[in-house]
Specification:
It is found in: Cytoplasm, Cytosol. With about 800 residues, the chain is mainly α. It is built from 27 helices and 2 strands. Helix 7 packs across helix 12 and helix 10 runs antiparallel to helix 11.
Length: about 800
């Protein structure tokens, strides 16, 4: 750096002195190999390039002189070097000739190799082209094979593998296909194929929608049949359980073991329906990225189908089409449940619930409307039974069927009103067609169907045939009607929203027995044209029906699954039992009225009695003969028909009525006067009647009745009156002690009226009954004293 600075300073100094660099500086710069650019630039800037050129020439000459001097100093060495150089030139010439010869040979050999090399290069190029062609052909071949396989899958309706192949072609091969035309064709066909596949699966799905609607009814019918079979097995199990309960209740030592087996038909496997088109359509649309679109399409189409299924045909009555209607709906929702559980996200639980709510709302409205129009209980029961089976079927699939069951419960009153109407009609027909004669059973099967079936037997021993039942044909008919009513009532109330419905059945059963059966019997018994024998049989029938109330209550409890021991409690009996018992009293009273009416007809014959005969009668009066004949007919009949207490009520009531009629005859205006001979005739009548009363008391078995009094006591008033009129001292009636002992049944007013009518016999010569003046005085005294006392 210092040297350069000094040179730059000297250069500037030389330039200042001479306008050009000095020779020493220029020589030093050239010798040192320095850059002469600044010097040349300075020369041109000073306008003296010729001076610099002159200096350079002087430098060249100086160096040539130095070379010449140097050469002179080393001349010999130079000559020697030249000689050596000449020798080298000779060797170089030989070497050159050798190289030329070798080069010629090498060129000759190289030309052949170059030809081979060109051939090799051309072969490599050809090989490369062939390899590329083969690779292209392989790609095209693979693509074509994939296309062929895709076409085969499409032709075989195997759309998912076809889509996978198309996706593989598009992803792995499309950009590598060297044939532009082929690539363009494939690019153009891929969307077309996808659209074709989409249309194909949509067509299959549309066909499935049509098919599933046609098979939904069969699916629903099979499912409802399963529910019905399960219900029957449940009823059979309950029946066996009731039998076991009865055995244990009555001390049976046999044990009843029940093995519950699973019915193979109960399995859902019998509900075979193909959902492959749905699965495939949903899967294909998911592969095509159209999952949401297909979900919406499926839901809308199924909703339209449901709305169509919920429409009722106007060409048939609802009763004729209700099974197919509800089976169609059941099949629809069974299919939807299967789709929900197996088809992924095709349909959501909330969408199924919306469809179910639509169906429930429509079915409730329809059932309410149809029930309001039905006027036959059996029609309501048929529809209700199928609706309950529908509910049992769909409950297994998790659907909420409570609202449907509630609507059935709301119509139970109407159903039972219609059922009561039917039963009333049947009971009235049975009562109208009954002959009211004891039922004669000639065969064992008749005994079982008419007596054992309703527990009407009085003993467990099978009787000899023909067997005469204590009731008429109306009783088993009415029992059969009541039993059917219980079954129908339980059928309607069972499997509803309420599990414990025995009290409801009991309420309607009481209503049937009280408002229908009891009212019909009372109406019948109150018929004034009814024969006494018929009235007796009706009263006997009422007794049997009242006893049957316990059987009805137990039967209803059994059907309702209530333990019988709960029904046998004292306060658990039917209210109808006491009502029928009370009605029996009314029947007995009405029957007694009929007997009294008939007896009154015979008592009218007392107008033919001669109340003032001159001689005592030699036989009983005509009226008594008729009365005795009639009672001899009625009492044995009543004995066969009526229980002892009712028989006692009738016979004692009739005899009491006869006694009262005899007193009334004495009190009537038809009898103005009577004498002792007439009293003797009435006394004879009473003795005959009392004799028959004693006989009837023993023959009919009334003496075995607890608390029963002798039938003779029913004639006590008439007997005491006749005794009073026959006595020679009638004034003893005024004696309280004697009156209490002998005349306690007599009324003073009646005695006064009758005593006033007493007429003494006239005086006759040679009379067998001479006049008794003391009796006349006694009678007059009695009359006077009674008149004064009153």
């Amino acid at each position: 750096m210092q040297t350069k600075s000094r040179r730059r300073g000297s250069l500037e100094h030389g330039e200042r002195d001479h306008g050009v660099v000095d020779d020493l500086t220029l020589s030093s710069c050239i010798s040192n190999g320095e850059d002469l650019g600044p010097i040349i630039r300075a020369a041109f800037e000073m306008g003296k390039p010729e001076l610099l050129l002159h200096q350079l020439r002087n430098f060249v000459k100086l160096k040539e002189t130095e070379i010449e001097d140097l050469c002179k100093v080393h001349y010999e060495e130079f000559i020697h070097a030249v000689d050596e150089l000449r020798g080298v030139l000779v060797d170089a010439h030989d070497l050159k000739n050798g190289l030329a010869s070798d080069n010629a040979e090498l060129q000759h050999a190289g030309n052949a190799l170059l030809g081979k090399l060109d051939e090799l290069i051309e072969s490599h190029s050809t090989k490369k082209n062939i390899t590329e062609a083969l690779d292209s052909l392989k790609i095209c071949s693979d693509v074509m094979n994939l296309c062929v396989r895709a076409n085969e899958h499409i032709n075989n309706n195997m759309y998912y593998p076809a889509l996978k192949l198309i996706d593989s072609i598009e992803r792995d091969y499309l950009t590598k296909i060297p044939a532009h035309d082929l690539r363009h064709i494939i690019e153009r066909q891929i969307p077309i194929i996808r659209v074709h596949i989409e249309k194909s699966v949509n067509n299959e799905f549309s066909d499935w929608l049509v098919q599933v609607r046609s098979i939904a009814r069969e699916i629903g019918q099979q499912s409802v049949w399963q529910a019905s079979s399960a219900r029957k097995r449940e009823m059979e199990l309950r029946s066996r359980q009731r039998e076991a309960e009865e055995l244990s209740r009555y001390g049976g030592k046999e044990c009843l073991y029940i093995l519950e087996t699973e019915d193979p038909d109960e399995d859902d496997s019998i509900l075979k329906f193909d959902l492959t088109p749905v699965y495939r359509a949903y899967h294909i649309h998911a592969c095509l990225g159209l999952q949401d679109q297909f979900q919406d399409y499926y839901y809308k189409n199924r909703q339209l189908q449901l709305n169509s299924d919920l429409q009722v045909s106007s060409s048939q009555s609802f009763l004729e089409q209700h099974q197919t209607y509800f089976a169609q709906i059941a099949g629809f929702f069974i299919v939807e449940d299967r789709i929900l559980r197996t088809a992924g996200d095709l349909i959501t639980n909330s969408q199924v619930e919306i469809l179910w709510e639509i169906a429930v709302s429509k079915m409730i409205s329809l059932v309410e409307d149809q029930f309001s129009r039905m006027q036959t209980a059996n029609h309501l029961l048929i529809v209700k039974d199928y609706v309950s089976l529908l509910c049992a079927t769909l409950r297994r699939y998790g659907y909420q069927v409570g609202p449907l069951l509630d609507i059935l419960d709301k119509n139970r009153d109407k159903y039972h009103e219609l059922l009561l109407t039917d039963c009333k009609r049947s009971i009235n027909e049975s009562l109208a067609n009954d002959s009211y004669e004891k039922m004669i059973i000639r065969k064992e099967y008749e005994y079982r169907s008419n007596i054992l079936a309703f527990h009407l037997q009085t003993t467990d021993i099978l009787p000899a045939f023909p067997f005469i039942a204590p009731f008429s044909a109306t009783v088993p008919d009415c029992c059969r009607i009541v039993k059917t009513f219980i079954e129908d009532s339980v059928s309607f109330l069972a499997y509803g929203s309420r599990m414990d419905f025995y009290d409801v059945v009991k309420k309607y059963l009481d209503k049937l027995l009280i408002n229908v059966l009891n009212e019909a019997l009372l109406k019948l018994i109150q018929n004034t044209t009814l024969a006494v024998s018929h009235a007796m049989q009706i009263a006997a029938n009422m007794t049997v029906l009242e006893q049957s109330c316990d059987f009805f209550a137990r039967y209803a409890a059994q059907l309702c699954g209530i333990p019988v021991r709960l029904v046998d409690r004292p306060h658990a009996s039917l209210a109808a039992k006491s009502v029928l018992l009370k009605s029996q009293g009314a029947a007995h009273e009405q029957m007694l009225v009929l007997v009294k009416t008939k007896v009154d007809e015979f008592m009218q014959l007392t107008i033919n009695i001669n109340w003032t005969p001159e001689d005592p009668p030699y036989s009983t009066n005509e009226y008594l003969n008729e009365v005795i004949i009639y009672l001899e007919t009625i009492i044995p009949l009543a004995q066969q028909i009526l229980p002892l207490d009712a028989l006692d009520s009738v016979v004692s009531g009739v005899l009491l009525h006869i006694s009262e009629e005899l007193i009334a005859t004495f009190l009537s205006e038809d009898v103005q006067r009577f004498n002792i001979h007439a009293i003797m005739g009435i006394d004879a009548d009473l003795k005959v009647l009392e004799s028959h009363a004693d006989q009837w008391f023993q023959v009919t078995g009334l003496h075995e009745l607890h608390g029963a009094t002798n039938l003779r006591e029913c004639l006590l008033e008439a007997r005491q009156l006749i005794n009073l009129l026959l006595t020679n001292q009638p004034e003893n009636f005024l004696n309280p002690v004697i009156r209490l002992k002998s005349y306690s049944a007599l009324d003073s007013r009646k005695v006064l009226i009758i005593a006033e009518k007493y007429k003494d016999l006239p005086e006759k010569l040679f009379s067998r009954n001479p006049k008794n003046p003391s009796k006349k005085k006694s009678m007059d005294l009695l009359v006077r004293r009674l008149r004064d006392g009153l």
